[in-house]
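Predict the 3D structure for this chain.
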Amino acid sequence: MLFPALGAPPAANAQGSGKAPRIGFFGPRGELVQSFQRGLRDLGYTEGHNITIEYRWTDVISDDPRQLDVLAAELVGLGVDVLVASVTQVIAAARRATTTVPIVMANAGGPVASGFVLSLARPGGNVTGVSRVTPDVVGKQLQFLLGAVPGVARIGVLSNPDNPLHVHMLSRARREALVLGVELEVAEASAPDRLEAALEGFGRNRAAAALVLGDGMFFLNRSRLGNLLVRARLPSMFANTEHVEAGGPMSYSASSRENYRRAAYFVDKILKGAKPAELPVEQPIKFELVINLKTAKGLGLTISPSLLLQADRVIE
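Done. Predicted structure below.
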């Protein structure tokens, strides 16, 4: 996609040569990459004029996680000046591919817990960017889920045991469940082929709704996961808007579009000479409640007018 030039070409001027900098983008197609492109446009970058972007798409990934390493290595091999990576597993693949090329996280879940940075204020190494998680988000997700399905006694929680952040999320969810007066049934899945078995456990233990914790593997398999939950007749709360766009009932999360747009700011700083180690990681400031009314109706849910009024976006 080409954008009209806005002023002088900052990237070329910053590097002091006629060669346009090359950016690697490793993430999803669609509106999120468009948000990143808009962020670049707002900063005066025009693809094909003063920057080049090499794309590798996460939506082509199958059950074999080694594909992530292959695609990350391809981008590094192209000599990109900065690599933009999306979710946790993708960022991890980018880090395995290089310790020298600057990496900008577009939507990282728990970058400190995942070991991507030393701290939010002083990242160290070659990684910086935008986080998508704050401590209170799981509590709010449970509150909104109960607002959609009031009166349920037990909620299933889908967790990935390989995600270091989920220990903290589960602790927060259990504290909130005590306040709300509901029981939690935790099921684990660390790979796509374990999703179905994990969700079957919810049915056996009579969970009446499900909370899916934010996770890169869950995100990459969002269509499959959403279909499994709908088939199980489980009203569900997700940690990414894209799950709802893929057919899930509802989500409460940081704005992925805003995070991807903001990732362009980090690219701009790095192309102008800033070191990733010295650029503080940003935490999200905008959160969105998104409801898919079509899916909700298919599950027999009647979303209350008060909850609809709180929604930032309703998909009909």
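The chain has two domains: 10-133+255-287, 137-254+288-315.
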